[in-house]
Amino acid sequence: MIEETETIEEFLARRSADVEEAVRKAAAAEILPRFRRLAAHEVDRKSGPHDLVTDADRLAELRLTEDLGALLPGSVVVGEEAVHADPAVYEALRGDTPVWIVDPVDGTRQFVHGDDGFCTLVALAHRGTVVASWTYAAARDEFATAVRGQGAFLDGERLFAGPPEPGRDLVVATSHPDYTTDEQKRALRALWTDGLAPRACGSAGLEYLAIARGELDAVAFSWEAAWDHAAGLLLVEEAGGTHLTLTGEPFRVTGGNALPFTAARDAATARRVAAVLRTAS
Predict the structure, then answer these.
(1) Helices 8-26 and 55-71, packing angle to 10 deg
(2) What's the count of helices (H) and strands (E) in the chain, helices before strands?
(3) What are phi and psi for residue 270, nearest 5 degrees?
């Protein structure tokens, strides 16, 4: 628990490893036992045919909500499934209380289809600023962490995104067509131009990890749900990358962003992608 006079930074210095352990335990108990073993009754649809939720999502979020709240008494959890049940939960991001931002299974579609391209995302935010993040690709046994100002790490090894190789097309992962409106498709269409190589994204969390690893140049996303972006954006920042909205400002987890936005492995790439996106706005 956080001590009465302890700062968030001091809490993280003491308990960051405990958060990692909580994430691993939630995945071991609720997610991995259902991977490639989901029964039909364990999969539901939410807003549409591509918006899936499973028992693994619901139960892992419940477990994380309990365990993270116990680690940091007085904090609140903004989880994807809790917000789906009660949208008012999202408002906690705009308050003064420390907030755990949780996506229990990012890449549910992949999870349902037996693809290992999914992960669990947890971020800790305070007064609108993300201060730490945990990204766990359980089926791949990869764990990435970041604390603001202290770097990004994958399985204990420091991550450096670095600039793209000169002279080649920039690979940009974009919002998947199945999850975009016609208006959003039009906004992203500008990326199909010389010098860019857009492709549909998979799990947002794993795309951000790919940027931090220097394996992907940028993303361009048209939605702002904090649970999809908070953990990954800090990972990218701490690996040397950056993110920009259409107005040239950083993405805010509290919302109200000018969309689409981009995150990239270096500032020059972010500016280039953002400039292309502005041509369609």
Answers:
(1) 150
(2) 8, 14
(3) -60, -45
- Backbone angles phi and psi of 275, in degrees to 5: -65, -40
* Pairing mode of beta strands 170-174, 196-200: parallel
Burial of residue 42, with CB atoms counted within 10 A of its CB: 0-12 exposed, 13-18 middle, 19 or more buried: middle
Segment holding 230, helix H or strand E: helix 226-238
What digits encode the pLDDT tens for the residues 217-262?
999 999 999 999 999 999 999 999 999 999 999 999 999 999 999 9
Whole-angstrom distance, CA of residue 156 vs CA of residue 151: 11
pLDDT at residue 162 in the model: 97
Q: 40 near 112, Cβ under 8 Å?
A: no
Q: How far apart (Å, rounded) are the C-alpha atoms in residues 268 and 213? A: 17
What 3-state class would DSSP assign to 206? helix
Enter the DSSP assignment of 72: S
Q: What tens digit of pLDDT does each residue of 169-185 get? A: 999 999 987 777 888 88
The Cα 92–Cα 265 span in angstroms is: 30
For the beta carbon of residue 141, count every other beta carbon within 10 angstroms: 10
Q: Is 20 exposed, middle or buried (0-12, 13-18, 19+ CB in 10 A)?
A: middle
pLDDT (tens digit, 9 = 90+) per residue, 58-84?
999 999 999 999 999 999 999 999 999
Task: State the pairing for strand pair 218-221/142-147.
Answer: unpaired
